[in-house]
């Protein structure tokens, strides 16, 4: 797999409202963030604070009402259809509920997002490499139901990496897992970042997960209320030092 440095992400004055009946609800409210290439950022905050919506806006799954998202030198919020589709293919998504296709093997689940593209043989080779990288070598022919939750999430991570994304957006990727398995999934994400260069934006409710990220951004009612550098110029492996700064 090719190493990159990961994407830089900038949001400026990002807004997203939802209309429910006559009510207007501001899910993301004037969010401006600069995210360094290669960093792993935890997005925290209570349920309904806008974490998922912010990830969807950055991944261009949803459209902002105002404000901009810029990834590397591409202003995502002004892209039109074809360019937008290309952008989405360059972003990796991982969700809390793995969203694997139950009738497809592990290998085919990983290949599925790129199937319409040409070069199927190469896709299978890459998918096998990725399954190896996430610790699932030998399970290519299993069906999702034959895997544990942690293993299914590993498949979902391999699938997200098929397009060699510079940016990985993960919405509570450990939310359905016990703390040990969740910790292992975070180990995997940090390792993939170190080896292949990727920026990771990860929504989480778990202190133990957030504490191991490089930075913590907290949302409340759609606004950024806290933005902590957890590396603090220290050895990035010093998670004890980071955890002691953190109060979730
Ligand atoms: N499609 C939608 N239609 C209407 N309201 C929505 C929609 N999506 C999100 N919202 C509202 O926007 C707000 C932010 O929701 P969001 O899902 O981003 O929060 P969250 O921080 O991810 O919460 P959780 O921790 O529960 O996943 C909530 O009040 C939610 O009800
Ligand atoms: Mg959410």
Helices and strands in order:
Blueprint: E1 9-20, E2 23-35, E3 40-44, H1 51-58, E4 66-71, E5 74-75, H2 81-89, E6 91-95, H3 106-111, H4 120-133, H5 149-160, E7 167-171, H6 179-196, E8 199-203, H7 207-210, E9 215-220, E10 223-229, H8 239-245
Helix pairs in contact: 4-5, 5-6
Region (Disordered): 228-248
Biased composition (Acidic residues): 228-237
Keywords: ATP-binding, Nucleotide-binding, Transport
How would you characterize this protein structure?
The chain has 248 residues and is α/β, with parallel strands linked by helices. It folds into 2 domains: 1-90 and 165-248, Rossmann fold (3-Layer(aba) Sandwich); 100-164, no CATH class. Helix content is 31%, strand content 27%. It is built from 8 helices and 10 strands. It has helices at 51-58, 81-89, 106-111, 120-133, 149-160, 179-196, 207-210, 239-245, and strands spanning 9-20, 23-35, 40-44, 66-71, 74-75, 91-95, 167-171, 199-203, 215-220, 223-229. A 6-stranded mixed sheet has the order 6-7-8-3-9-10, sandwiched between helices. Helix 4 packs across helix 5 (149-160) and helix 5 (149-160) packs parallel to helix 6. The termini are far apart. The model has no long low-confidence stretch (mean pLDDT 90). The chain binds adenosine-5'-triphosphate and magnesium ion (MG). Adenosine-5'-triphosphate binds next to strand 1, strand 2 and helix 1. Residues 228-237 have a biased composition (Acidic residues). InterPro entries: AAA+_ATPase, ABC_transporter-like_ATP-bd, ABC_transporter-like_CS, ABC_transpr_LolD-like, MacB-like_ATP-bd, P-loop_NTPase. Keywords: ATP-binding, Nucleotide-binding, Transport. It comes from Micromonospora parva. Residues 9-246 form the ABC transporter domain.
């Amino acid at each position: 797999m090719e190493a990159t440095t990961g994407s830089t992400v900038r949001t400026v004055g990002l807004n997203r409202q939802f209309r429910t009946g006559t009510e207007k609800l501001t899910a993301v409210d004037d969010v401006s963030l600069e995210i360094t290439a290669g960093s792993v950022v935890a997005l925290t905050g209570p349920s309904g604070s806008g974490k998922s919506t912010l990830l969807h806006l950055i991944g261009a799954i949803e459209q902002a009402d105002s404000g901009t998202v810029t990834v590397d030198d591409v202003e995502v919020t002004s892209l039109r259809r074809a360019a937008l589709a290309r952008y989405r293919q360059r972003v990796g998504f991982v969700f809390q509920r793995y969203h694997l296709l139950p009738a497809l093997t592990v290998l085919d689940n990983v290949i599925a997002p790129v199937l319409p593209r040409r070069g199927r043989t190469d896709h299978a080779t890459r998918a096998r490499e990725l399954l190896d990288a996430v610790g699932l070598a030998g399970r290519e022919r299993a069906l999702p139901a034959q895997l544990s939750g942690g293993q299914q999430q590993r498949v979902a991570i391999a699938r997200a990496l098929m397009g060699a994304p510079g940016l990985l957006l993960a919405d509570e990727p450990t939310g359905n897992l016990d703390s040990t398995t969740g910790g292992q999934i975070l180990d995997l994400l940090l390792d993939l970042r170190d080896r292949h260069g990727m920026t990771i934006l990860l929504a989480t409710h778990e202190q133990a997960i957030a504490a191991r990220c490089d930075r913590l951004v907290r949302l409340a009612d759609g606004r950024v209320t806290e933005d902590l550098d957890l590396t603090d110029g220290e050895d990035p492996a010093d998670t004890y030092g980071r955890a002691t700064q953190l109060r979730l």
